[in-house]
Amino acid sequence: MVNIIQKSFGLNLKVLHIMGLYSYGKSSIFLKVRAYTLYFTLLVLTTVLIIVKILLAKSSNNLEANLMFTYVADCGSFFFKLLPFLRNSDKIKGCINFFGQKNFAPKTYHERKILDECVWVCRRNSIVYFYGVLLVNIGWNFPVLFVKGRKLPLRLWLPYDPSSTIVNYYFTFVYIAAVIATIYNSYSGTIMDPLIGGLAYHATAQLKILKHNLEHLDKHLAHKLSKRNEHIIEFRCVQKHLESCIDHHKNILWFIDEYEDCFSWSIFCQFAGSMFAVCFCYISLTLVPLNSLEALTYFVLAFNLSFQILFYCHYGTLLYEENNDLSNAIYMGPWYKSC
Predict the structure, then answer these.
(1) Would the CA dihedral through 314, 139, 124, 259 be positive or negative?
(2) Which tens digit of pLDDT belongs to each residue from 228-284?
(3) Consecutive H or E run containing 37
(4) Residues near 177 by Cβ (< 8 Å), separated by ≥ 6?
(5) So where are the chain's domains?
(6) Is 94 in contact with 84 (CB distance < 8 Å)?
(7) Which pLDDT tens digit goes with each residue over 55-114?
(8) Radius of gyration (Cα) for the chain, nearest Å?
(9) Which residue in 169, 243, 272, 302 has the fewest CB atoms around it within 10 Å?
């Protein structure tokens, strides 16, 4: 049976697995080698070549410069954002799959309804964001094929001019390599954002379940009594259920500590990179006609960059508010019957 984590983030985990950043089974040397090879060749090397090109350029078009600054700002943050997935993959895998354990499976219709809504929201966010990034890649990589002259989707420093007829047969290879690098950089650094934000929403869903259980101890008690023929002392049954709620709360708190330890650095890097990338992207929007394909590409890119931050802000706020409401649920529940 597929657990709720696989239902929620199946698409995200498949993409991360292709890039070597997530393992379905035990982490292998081959997966590590693949992850580091793609990281250094497609992310680090590409960004370094762009920076060298910018530094050595004698004159530059403002639009192209802003576009490359946007790319460097975003991908520069990915240098550090991906490091936890490379260095602590097993620990992050445990954190991702924590709520997929059997003890978090829904036991009542109300719990199933809460988790089904959570799974739907996470799947929706992942699918919408996946195709949003795909649209940005199409708008970034393919319009250069229809402009006059030979141009690459990235302004890379190369030891030769790719538009030169002498090395014309190199252009196709370099273009394909640049497209692959763009796709890797865009998905490796962004597909984890719906995942990380969605995990916070799963913690929120668990707090909703806990809050409901605390507020309706009597209903749980009646449910248990109706299924048993032997007499059960009421306060002992309520006390036992409260102990179960306490264990549930401890597990949620443990997850939050692990979540912060695993992803706080990645979240900080994303905020820092997006702050600069969004600014450069909106500057680029002022340099092109608003009815052009370039304007649409920059608008979608700025929207995606802003959406990356929204995942953390929105679902982090929901988690914070749900945790604050927990004390009210404890007070409103029939806790006095356990005394």
Answers:
(1) negative
(2) 444 444 556 667 777 888 899 999 999 999 999 999 999 998 888 888 888 888 888
(3) helix 29-38
(4) none
(5) 4-338
(6) no
(7) 777 666 666 777 777 778 878 888 888 988 988 888 999 999 999 888 888 888 889 999
(8) 25
(9) 169
